[in-house]
Amino acid sequence: MVESHGRAPHPDVMNTVSNSRATDVHEAPDYQSLQRPLEFSAAAAAKVRELIAEEGNPALKLRVYIQGGGCSGFQYGFEFDEQQGEDDLAIVTDAVTLLVDPLSLQYLMGAEVDYSESLQGAQFVIRNPNAKTTCGCGSSFTV
After folding, report:
1. Contact status, residue 78 vs residue 67, Cβ threshold 8 Å
2. Mean pLDDT, to the nearest integer, of 66-71?
3. CB-based contact 100:39 (threshold 8 Å)
4. Rounded to whole angstroms, what are the CA distances from 142 to 33, 69, 74?
5. Rounded Cα gap, residues 32 and 109, in angstroms
6. Is 52 left (phi over 0), alpha (psi -120 to 50) or beta?
7. What is the mean pLDDT of residues 58-82?
8. pLDDT of 83-120, one tens digit each?
9. Of 39, 112, 130, 136, which one's alpha carbon is 20 to 30 angstroms from that of 104?
10. Sign of CA dihedral 57, 12, 93, 91
11. What gap in Å lies between CA 39 and CA 17, rounded to an integer?
12. Entry pTM
């Protein structure tokens, strides 16, 4: 389980639903050779920049994490964080930083964090090649 970093999530971050692309994974791909083991899209960075501006704190970074729970076993979480742990992975896109702790990274290797606006609403989306199955709402998964 990922520790909370003491800051309440921004309402727009907390209320987003993440979708996973379910795939059948028999053998974990080797993402160590990738320059960026996790992708942070320009659309997601733009939305995070907008939310940070609303908060009025340019030191904020978006943290994505995995925690136990949800109807499929694990679920995604997002929160703003001012602190970057020395073992956090930091992905910078368009001067906006996404943080991932090492425990969560093992479930997110090769995934993409994106932001999507559609008729169903606006939401952060995680496309995770490691997810074997997802629940109906898309916010939890199994590996």
Report:
1. no
2. 76
3. no
4. 24, 10, 6
5. 9
6. alpha
7. 87
8. 999 999 999 999 999 999 999 999 899 999 999 998 88
9. 136
10. positive
11. 18
12. 0.70
DSSP string, the chain: -PPP-S-PPPHHHHT----------SS----TTSS-SSEE-HHHHHHHHHHHHHHT-TT-EEEEEEEE-STTSEEEEEEEES---TT-EEEEETTEEEEE-HHHHHHHTT-EEEEEEETTEEEEEEE-TT-SEE-TTSSEEE-
Q: Residue 52 carries which side chain, given as an amino acid letter? A: I
Q: How many angstroms separate the CA atoms of 47 and 21, rounded?
A: 21
Quickly tell me which residue has 């050779």 as its tokens. 33
